[in-house]
Each structure stands twice: as structure tokens, then as C-alpha cells.
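Exercise 7b. C-alpha cells:
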């Protein structure tokens, strides 16, 4: 029996999961990912490096305690969120907290980048939009506001790479994570000389790029003691979470679309070559290196599940008082949706509470309810949130179809929110296409575990790995009458952002500008 272990660094939780080669979960544990707001900067959001590493180590130790024989773990890989990085010294110690992707402080750096280097030129090299949250903007902010720290920095490590360094002592990254730096030449598969020079970031800060699944070395004795992972266990290069999730979903075949719904919603398809054109940039789509060599992923993403968490937290306080757990809160809130009408009685929701993603990308856009009247209920508002998130998904998909001149053969949904049957049925109704919910749980860590198996030759190839772990799930069929109605509503939804843009920008500048 061989086991594969993955560590998943998510925005809400840090997981450690042990799988067998058939994708069955053998053991697991998690710890919360704790967002921190500094008292002197209430508009900033950071991650504490000690909490990230400590949470990962504790989750590993708990998961491994559930195993009869931990020596069966053949290797470990790390996956997780992509943009957040940290400067470290030569020993791998963090010199500053992670600036979270929620944090908007680097908007001025993104504006400088677009004005001086150019968003279009950057995209033609990197395949990435010049977002404020990409790693190089954080580096430029640090260079301007914390120059003494940048002067001491040995490397800039993204969050997975930081944990890898803690585990193995090796400072490196993979191509999918390097794409998030906005300094990777996608065609040449190396750091871009042009962009490194134009940014003024020392090349020495950039880690070596390795193929996902490459062994980094054995776990260090110190990390073994902290995590419970047996000494000598290989640590392998993982990759960006949403791209790792494509492996158990089979997204290395043309025509398939994977929709990962979590804190963010990422809609993605696999390509054999990156499409680096101004039209793709205008739709705010990304061309990112796959975790598989020689492959790429086209994707569009936007904040998603966080809207529902905000609604539960702020609108469901009375329900929480009598509920035993979070599931009970959601069961109560979702039960009321059965009484609501398609279209939420005229209420609509613009899901930009953490800024706008694809296909708009506006860090100053804010969330909004519109169409509210004295008859609007909390159930209507909850339905409007779900419909607004699905309209956002439809908008992303429309941009991909138009700009890539393609059509899709299948839509597979995965992620924690895929358990919300109302949400997925509503998605199928809007699309007018069947939507399959994968039975695979924890697709991102399972994908990272598959990389371990591929890197150690425990699978012959990715097709064998996929055949062993794949699982068919429930298929939601669209309802024609709902599809027709939503086509009309979608056009109204698309008018919300341009109509509210000047209002939201004025409010952002007045209340949220750092």
C-alpha cells in the first residue's frame, strides 16, 4: 500500500490529507487560515507566516496520527492560493507578513505598472493581466514602503513555496505559481529579462522554477518533528490549487470545462499553447502554465463563495443563535429559497464585495443589491446573491467562448460550494446545459497528491492517474423555461457594473482608499 500526502493552503482553511493511489482519503485534518487586520491599518488584510506554517504543521501531525503506518507515505506536495508571497532571509525566515489577495493597498503599484510598463505588453509576455494582487505589485510596494526589509531579503516566496522551504529547506517554485508573479515569460518558460529589468526587482529574489512533481529533497529533521511526517519522506514541487484541481477532473483534454467554486470561482480549460492576444487581455482572462509540462490553462476567476459567507455572517445572526453548527445555519437559510421566485422578486446582486474579477477586473468596484422594495425578503436577497454569482459565472464563460472562439462539450463543477444543490441547479438553468458535480472531494489536494505519484513514477502517466482517481457525480439538467427567463435577466445583470461604476469609485476613494 502506497500513500500520497498533500497540504492545501486555502483562504479559509489549511488542510493535510493522505490519499491512496486510487484517490481514497485515508486520513485528514485541518486548521483555520486566520485573516489578520493590523490595528493601525483597518483596511489591510494579512496572513501571519507563523500561523500558516504552524497550521500546516499541526494539521499534518493530526492527520498522520490517524495512520497505522506513516512510513507508507511516499511523498508530500503543497498546493494552495497563488498570489500571496513573502520576503525571506537566507534561512527561510519570513521578514514581513503575507499581504493577502483581499488587501487593496497595491492599487497604486498596479497603476504605475500599467502606465510605465504597459498592461498589453506585459500580457503578451506573461499571459497575465496586471492585477494589483499579483506578486510583483506586492514586491514593488515593499520596495517603496519597507526598503530596509527588501534590502535584507534573500528570496521572495509565494505561500506554497514558503511552506515547501519549511519542509525541505529548498527555495523554489513551479511554473503554475511562477505565472502568478507577473514576471514569467510563458513562451520561453523562464523569468522575463525585459520585465525583471523594467520592474527594478533584483533577479536574485526570484526562486528557481521547477516542473511540478519534481522532488525537492527529503523533509528536514526539524520539519519532521513539527509535522510528524517521517524523516526521509520526499517533498515534491506542487502547484497552484485551481490548476492542481484539474488533474482529477481530467482537464488535460480539449473541450472540457472545470468550474471550481470556493472563496473564488475559477472557470478553466486546458490548451496546448498559450493564447497571448490583446483580445484575451481585454476580457481579463489568464493564460497560466499548467502543472503538466507543455500544457497551459486558460481561466477566468472572480471572488465568489465569500459573498455567501458574508450573507450568513451578517444576515443570519438570528439563525446562528439557535443552530448547533454551520451546516445547520445553512440548512435553515437555504430552506427559505423554496418559497422564492425566479429572479428574486426583482432583486439583483452585483458580487463585487472583494472587488471585480473576470471579465471586468476593477479593484474599486463594490458589491450592491438593486431592485429592492418594501416586499423584498431575506430569502429574496439570498436568492439574489446566488443568482448574481451565477450571472458572474455566465459572464466569465461568455468571455472565454467569444475570445477563444471555442465551445464546450462538458461542464464539471467541484469545490466546497458544489454541495449547495440550489446553486448548482440554478447554474444549469442559466447555462441551458447539463452540469455535472464531481464526486471527488478536495480536488486541489488530490491533484497535488497525483503530482507526487507522477513524480515518483507510481503512475505510468497522467491518464493512468486520472483513470484511477476519477469519479462520476450527479448531473443537473437545465429547465428550459428558467433558461429563457434568465437570458433576459443576464442582459440586465451586465448593465449593473457600468451603471454603478462611477458611484462605487467615488465611494471607494472616500472610504476605502489606503
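Sequence design result:
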Amino acid at each position: 500500500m502506497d500513500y500520497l500526502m498533500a497540504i492545501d493552503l486555502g483562504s479559509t482553511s489549511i488542510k493535510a490529507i493522505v490519499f491512496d493511489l486510487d484517490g481514497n482519503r485515508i486520513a485528514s485534518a485541518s486548521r483555520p487560515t486566520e485573516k489578520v487586520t493590523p490595528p493601525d491599518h483597518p483596511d489591510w488584510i494579512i496572513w501571519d507566516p507563523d500561523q500558516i506554517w504552524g497550521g500546516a504543521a499541526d494539521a499534518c501531525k493530526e492527520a498522520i496520527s490517524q495512520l497505522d503506518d506513516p512510513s507508507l507515505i511516499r511523498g508530500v506536495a503543497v498546493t494552495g492560493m497563488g498570489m500571496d508571497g513573502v520576503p525571506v532571509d537566507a534561512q527561510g525566515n519570513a521578514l514581513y507578513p503575507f499581504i493577502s489577495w483581499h488587501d487593496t493597498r497595491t492599487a497604486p503599484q498596479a497603476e504605475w505598472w500599467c502606465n510605465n510598463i504597459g498592461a498589453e505588453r506585459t500580457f503578451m509576455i506573461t499571459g497575465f493581466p496586471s492585477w494589483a494582487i499579483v506578486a510583483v505589485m506586492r514586491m514593488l510596494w515593499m520596495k517603496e514602503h519597507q526598503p530596509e526589509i527588501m534590502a535584507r531579503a534573500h528570496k521572495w516566496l509565494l505561500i506554497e513555496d514558503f511552506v515547501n522551504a519549511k519542509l525541505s529547506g529548498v527555495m523554489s517554485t513551479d511554473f503554475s505559481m511562477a505565472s502568478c508573479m507577473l514576471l514569467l515569460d510563458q513562451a520561453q518558460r523562464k523569468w522575463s529579462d525585459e520585465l525583471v529589468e523594467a520592474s527594478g526587482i533584483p533577479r536574485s529574489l526570484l526562486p528557481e522554477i521547477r516542473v511540478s512533481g519534481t522532488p525537492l529533497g527529503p523533509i528536514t529533521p526539524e520539519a519532521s518533528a513539527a509535522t510528524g511526517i517521517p524523516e526521509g519522506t520526499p517533498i515534491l514541487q506542487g502547484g497552484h490549487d485551481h490548476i492542481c484541481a484539474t488533474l482529477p477532473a481530467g482537464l488535460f483534454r480539449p473541450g472540457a470545462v472545470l468550474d471550481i467554486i470556493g472563496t473564488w470561482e475559477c472557470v478553466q480549460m486546458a490548451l496546448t499553447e498559450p493564447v497571448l492576444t490583446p483580445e484575451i487581455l481585454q476580457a481579463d482572462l489568464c493564460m497560466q502554465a499548467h502543472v503538466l509540462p507543455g500544457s497551459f490553462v486558460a481561466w477566468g476567476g472572480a471572488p465568489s463563495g465569500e459573498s455567501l459567507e458574508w450573507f450568513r455572517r451578517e444576515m443570519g445572526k438570528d439563525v446562528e443563535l439557535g443552530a448547533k453548527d454551520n451546516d445547520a445555519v445553512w440548512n435553515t437559510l437555504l430552506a427559505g429559497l423554496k418559497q422564492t421566485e425566479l429572479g428574486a422578486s426583482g432583486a439583483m446582486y452585483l458580487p463585487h464585495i472583494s472587488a471585480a474579477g473576470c471579465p471586468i477586473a476593477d479593484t474599486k468596484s463594490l458589491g450592491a443589491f438593486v431592485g429592492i422594495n418594501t416586499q423584498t425578503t431575506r430569502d429574496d436577497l439570498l436568492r439574489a446573491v446566488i443568482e448574481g454569482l451565477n450571472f458572474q459565472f455566465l459572464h466569465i464563460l461568455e468571455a472565454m467562448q467569444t475570445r477563444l472562439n471555442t465551445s464546450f462539450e462538458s461542464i464539471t463543477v467541484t469545490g466546497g460550494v458544489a454541495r449547495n444543490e440550489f446553486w448548482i441547479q440554478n447554474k444549469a438553468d442559466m447555462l441551458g446545459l447539463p452540469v455535472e458535480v464531481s464526486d471527488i472531494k478536495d480536488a486541489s489536494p488530490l491533484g497535488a497528491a497525483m503530482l507526487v505519484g507522477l513524480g515518483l513514477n507510481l503512475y505510468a502517466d497522467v491518464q493512468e492517474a486520472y483513470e484511477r482517481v476519477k469519479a462520476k457525480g450527479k448531473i443537473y439538467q437545465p429547465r428550459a423555461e428558467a433558461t429563457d427567463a434568465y437570458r433576459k435577466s443576464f442582459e440586465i445583470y451586465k448593465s449593473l457594473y457600468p451603471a454603478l461604476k462611477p458611484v462605487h469609485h467615488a465611494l471607494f476613494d472616500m472610504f476605502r482608499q489606503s
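Instructor comment: The domain at 3-240 is CATH 3.30.420.40 (Nucleotidyltransferase; domain 5). The first helix runs from residue 49 to 65.
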